[in-house]
Specification:
The complex is a heterodimer.
Chain A (H helix, E strand, L loop, with lengths): L9 E5 L3 H8 L4 E6 L4 H6 L4 E3 L8 H12 L3 E4 L5 H11 L4 H10 L1 H10 L7 E4 L2 H14 L11 E5 L9 E3 L2 H5 L8 E5 L4 E10 L2 E12 L3 E4 L3 H4 L2 H14 L5 E9 L5 E7 L7 H9 L3 H9 L5 H7 L10 E6 L14 H4 L4 E6 L18 E7 L2 H11 L7
Parallel strand pairs in A: 1-2, 1-4, 2-3
Antiparallel strand pairs in A: 5-8, 6-7, 6-8, 9-10, 9-12, 10-11, 11-14, 12-13, 14-16, 15-16
Chain B lengths: L3 H23 L2 H20 L3 H5 L3 H7 L15 H10 L2 H19 L9 H14 L1 H5 L4 H5 L5 H15 L5 H12 L7 H16 L7 H15 L11 H10 L2 H18 L4 H12 L6 H5 L3 H9 L1 H11 L7 H11 L7 H10 L4 H11 L5 H14 L12 H13 L1 H14 L3 E4 L2 E4 L17 H20 L8 H9 L6 E4 L11 H12 L13 E8 L5 E14 L5 E6 L27 E4 H7 E6 L12 H13 L7
The chains are: A alpha+beta, B alpha+beta.
Chain lengths: 408, 660
């Protein structure tokens, strides 16, 4: 175990992640893991500082947690998962004596509020609306396509249907016709509807301290929900200055003093940036792993530095590399969904495994043979990792994975 | 040394290896488990690479330090059990197999270097590896079991290579005894292909030369000596393996008595082991070239039957020896000897068919297939003639190699046994026209026009006749399958008689309902089989022609593996009065453990060369298809209900477990 520096911050992590614990074990900050009870045995066995907590519903107990952490001398709470973002907001507002943090975290948790706030702040967003039921969805689909001057019978431009408070692609559907609407279950409402933006979608990971961007990474999506790589191609990186401006705007509008954000944008052919959404937690598609591979720094430790009120600017400067320039290569990953309805075994296609860029996979053998039909962008069955020098080759390689069967 | 091509493909794997290894070694206890999986994936890729083992070996210490074994059952090497290794290598999912491989390499490091593993004494490590090797001889011997072939995992050949690597490093001491027994067990089945056996005998020979002193167990020593001398020095004039040239010189200078002794000595060694030395081939060629043909019969070790055949067909046999018996095809000597003993030359079409074969010119396709499998020397034609001799001499010695073509191998064996004339006709079609034409219910099927069957490419690990004929037969078999696909019953009902020959019984019995896969009228099936084949129940009628039958193959745990084609050769009492079914399994090694005490015997229970056998009840419990000629038996004896019940129970405990 790394020696802990008592002069530096004391961190509470909200959520259970072995990778994160591993990073903290090797870092000089004291820490405590706040996670559900099922992890307690493991934590006790391995001497991991642990508080058992039920994050199901944010309730009055958030104050109890905050008080407890405060008494321990904890300086800040860091959320790992979407569900713990407002818990962190509530706890931090107590720990730091800043009630605004709770409200801010609520903005991050509600996609509709988030968009409104962005729009109010002068950030460009697509057309969006809240939907309470299926009729709302159909009306929005029609209205958007009327706006686009489509005639009856023309193929519709799609719209996007997203759960308010779920991470990433969970509950995300693309709606093209009223038939698609009929497939949405009642319990998926309320939801956010958005017009489809034609353009290049990408994500940003930004570590912020003292309202200043400390490190900004651009993650290029090859296909949304399937693949991403880091750093982006030069074609996307050429927008870095513009993107930095956008992130600074976000910092203003959302009043972000510190922490880590993970927004998504579209850039259209004419270079206009459209804001999609922003999360105040590590990205789901394991961009942290990719950054570690490309740059060699541990993104969880970076997270701690960005949240720790006792971290100094010198420490941060020494920690972060120079974007793009310091990358040893490009790291990408591909999320695998079974393509067949019935699968019996995991089988890495030889063309994948024999590719010089292939590194390893984290795919699990199938638990059951029947594949649930994918209605929304569901959860992938695991990730396949690649690393190489040429971003274009990597991009094409990731794209090619979409036509391969990993489960037979 | 590795070639640059291999290094090109090794580099990217090594790059991942370095990265993941640094992640694993840097990880705290909490992160170890999350990085072990990817480390094992990288190791798996390395294992599959031709120079992978060499790349991993020097890194074993680092891998262990980094924590590859941490938190697993492999964490404490001294508590590992050799008996469990084989099963893990065979059955486990690839990451566990990779971990087991790393564990073996850790033992190897310890066996070589006292300092590599302080907790693992060199002696213990060597002993552990020797036990692992002895328990996994089948993999080292390259004998492919049905079970292994069907369940072939992606790492199987990598594991085979690793075991051979370990064998090369640890040496054969300690496992020699088991090795020798295993070689004898295989040889008693008289396989046509003996290359893997020969390479094992070579290993044994080298090991004995090195460690002659410590290798003293007398029985084993004797068994090993007989094997080695049969290959490398069967007689007085070549006892010390002087090389063919010296041997020929000595023959030239030898007197009549010595030559006579050489002839009988050669024959004795050959019939004792089933192996033919290259010296034996040289001897035969010498006596023919030097006009001493009278020594041929002694050199072949013929009985009065064989001798008579030889005398009747002297010119033909001499020509066959001239073409087929060469350095590299010495086994043909055994084929010729046993063919003469079978007396099949007396059947009118055989001798002319063999003359046709001797004069045949092979098509370029046949030639290139033979060259791909065996190389260009001896020539493809010589190779093929030698192959025909071996097949006609040892009809039950044919094996399917590592190919899913048991049907074709079974057909070849059946024809060689029962209808050699037809076999030679099929071969002539293939070698002169690149096609085999067979008929199915009146419709002609031309293999040249049919798509590929079960085997995706020409089998390279089979005997010469199979190399030429199996691709054709396999296509025809698959086409017959397509033609009957819609009939809703097991296709073999129609295919077996049409593919193999008129003598296959047209009455078809199957134990399962084809639509559901469930047992169907199973008791009746058992009763019918007794009435058709059991001499006590069918009026003591012997099996007249070899009959195809279908077996539900089970593994040593008794779990179902797959359906397999065999042929029933005879049913008879063995020397201890047990009624046994003697059958041919086209699989390369018939001695298999089918679980629940059902172990197929290949020797010692009245088997003839190449036969496998089981007591009638045990055999019946794994049977699911058989044919019957439909003739009324003279005096039927009813079958005891107890007998049926005990057979049913054996089936229900194993392959039929979920089928009732």
């Amino acid at each position: 175990m790394h020696t802990k520096d008592q002069q530096k911050g004391y961190i509470a992590i909200l959520g259970w992640s072995l990778r994160c614990i591993d990073a903290l074990e090797r870092f000089d900050r004291r820490y405590v893991i706040v996670a559900p009870q099922w992890a307690e045995d493991y934590a006790t066995q391995h001497d991991i500082p642990f508080i058992s907590w039920d994050f199901e519903r944010l309730n009055d107990r958030s104050f109890e947690l905050a008080t407890r952490l405060n008494e321990m001398g904890v300086d800040v709470a860091i959320p790992l998962f979407e569900e713990t973002v407002e818990w962190a907001g509530a706890v931090n507002s107590v720990l730091m004596g800043n009630p605004r943090l709770l409200g801010q975290s609520m903005l991050f948790r509600d996609k509709s509020l988030m968009k409104r706030r962005a729009q109010l702040g002068g950030i460009r967003v697509g057309i969006f609306e809240e939907a309470m039921d299926q009729t709302d969805v159909i009306r929005f689909l029609k209205r958007v396509n009327q706006t686009l001057l489509k005639l009856d019978g023309d193929p519709n431009d799609p719209i996007h249907f997203k759960a308010f408070d779920k991470a990433g692609c969970l509950g995300h559907r693309v709606i093209r016709s009223p038939d698609d609407v009929a497939a949405i279950a009642d319990d998926e409402f309320p939801a956010l509807l958005e017009s489809h933006l034609d353009g290049w979608e990408f994500a940003v990971e930004a570590w912020i301290k003292d309202r200043k961007i400390q490190f900004l990474n651009i993650s290029e999506y090859v296909t949304l929900g399937y693949s991403v790589f880091v750093p982006a191609t030069p074609e996307l990186e050429k927008y870095r200055a513009k993107i930095t401006e956008q992130i600074e705007k976000l910092i203003e509008v959302f009043d972000i003093d510190f922490g880590f954000i993970h927004p998504e944008y579209f850039v259209t052919n004419d270079g206009t940036m459209y804001f999609g959404e922003v999360a105040y937690r590590p990205p789901g598609f394991n961009a942290f792993e990719l950054m570690e591979r490309a740059y060699g720094f541990n993104a969880y430790q970076a997270l701690v530095l960005a949240f720790d009120p006792k971290a100094t600017q010198e420490e941060l400067d020494a920690f972060f590399p120079t974007p793009v320039k310091d990358a040893k290569g490009h790291a990408g990953c591909f999320g695998v969904y079974p393509r067949r309805r019935v699968v019996s075994e995991l089988s890495i296609p030889p063309e994948t495994e024999n590719d010089p860029y292939f590194e390893f996979h984290e795919l699990a053998p199938p638990m059951e043979s029947k594949v649930t039909k994918r209605t929304a962008f569901g959860t992938h069955w695991g990730l396949v990792y690649f690393f190489g020098e040429d971003p274009h080759r990597l991009r094409d390689l990731l794209k090619a994975q979409e036509d391969l069967d990993f489960y037979l | 040394m590795t070639t640059s091509l291999q290094d090109d493909t090794l580099d990217p794997i090594m790059r991942s290896f370095e990265h993941v290894l640094s992640q694993l070694s840097g990880a705290s206890f909490a992160g170890k488990a999350t990085y072990q999986g990817r480390m094992l994936d990288t190791i798996k890729r390395l294992l599959k690479h031709p120079s992978g083992i060499a790349a991993i070996e020097p890194r074993i210490g680092e891998l262990e330090q980094a924590g590859i074994f941490e938190g697993t059952d492999w964490a404490v090497p001294s508590s590992l059990v050799p008996g469990m290794v084989g099963n893990t290598l065979r059955m486990a999912e690839p990451r566990t197999v990779a971990l087991e491989c790393i564990s073996l390499l850790r033992f190897l490091a310890a066996a070589r270097d006292e300092k590599a593993q302080p907790s693992l004494p060199t002696e213990h490590a060597r002993h552990f590896l020797a036990q692992v090797l002895a328990l996994n001889l089948d993999r080292i011997l390259g004998a492919h079991h049905e079970a292994a072939r069907i369940k072939a995992g992606e790492l199987d050949s990598a594991v085979d290579a690793l075991l051979k690597h370990i064998l090369a490093n640890v040496g054969t001491e300690g496992i020699l005894g088991q090795l020798v027994d295993e070689v004898w067990r295989i040889l008693r089945q008289r396989p046509i292909q003996v290359d893997h056996v020969k390479s094992m005998i070579l290993q044994i020979a080298l090991a004995m030369k090195e460690e002659g002193q410590s290798f003293s167990a007398s029985d084993t020593r004797l068994g090993a000596d007989r094997l080695i001398s049969a290959l490398f020095g069967p007689t007085e004039l070549c006892r010390e393996d002087p090389g063919l040239e010296v041997y020929r010189d000595r023959l030239g200078a030898a007197d009549t008595g010595t030559l006579q002794a050489e002839a009988t000595g050669m024959a004795r060694a050959m019939h004792d082991t089933g192996l033919v030395s290259d010296y034996h081939a040289a001897f035969l060629r010498f006596v023919l070239e030097s006009g001493q043909g009278h020594l041929v019969s002694d050199a072949l070790g013929l009985s009065s039957t064989g001798l008579d055949s030889l005398r009747c067909y002297q010119a033909l046999v001499q020509q066959l020896i001239e073409v087929a018996v060469r350095q590299g095809t010495a086994q043909a000597v055994l084929g010729i000897a046993l063919m003469l003993e079978r007396g099949i030359l007396y059947s009118p079409p055989i001798a002319p068919s063999l003359w046709r074969l001797l004069g045949a010119r092979l098509t370029p396709t046949s030639e290139s297939a033979l060259i791909a499998a065996f190389g260009a020397d001896p020539t493809p034609h010589q190779r093929l003639v030698a192959g025909v001799m071996m097949l006609l001499g040892l009809p039950l010695g044919i094996g399917q190699g590592n190919n899913p073509t048991c049907q074709a191998a079974r057909a070849l064996s059946m024809w060689a046994l029962n209808d050699p004339d037809y076999l030679l006709w099929q071969l002539a079609q293939a070698t002169s026209n690149d096609r085999v034409i067979m008929h199915f219910e009146g419709q002609s099927l031309d293999s040249a026009l049919l798509p590929a069957g079960l085997a995706l490419h020409t089998p390279l690990d089979a005997d010469p006749v199979s190399v030429v004929l199996v691709p054709h037969l396999d296509r025809i078999y698959a086409e017959m399958g397509r033609l009957v696909a819609g009939r809703g019953e097991d296709p073999h009902r129609w295919i077996n008689p049409e593919l193999h020959g008129w003598w296959v019984g047209r009455e078809f019995h199957i134990a399962v309902d084809v639509a559901t896969g469930k047992l169907h009228a199973y008791d009746q099936f058992i009763r019918d089989f007794h009435k058709a084949y059991h001499p006590f129940h069918n009026g003591n009628e012997p099996v007249i022609h070899p009959q195809p039958a279908g077996i539900a193959v089970t593994d040593s745990q008794g779990s179902f593996i797959g359906w397999h084609a065999i042929s029933i050769i005879r049913v008879a009492l063995d020397q201890s009065g047990v009624m046994r079914v003697y059958f041919f399994n086209p699989n390369n090694d018939s001695g298999q453990d089918w679980g629940h005490g059902i172990v197929v015997s290949t020797q010692g229970n009245g088997e003839r060369l190449g036969e496998a056998s089981l007591p009638f009840e045990q055999f019946t419990s794994r049977l699911y298809i058989f044919h019957d000629d439909g003739l009324k038996t003279a005096s039927e004896v009813p079958v005891d209900e107890d007998q049926i019940t005990s057979i049913r129970e054996l089936a229900l405990q194993s392959w039929a477990q979920n089928r009732h």
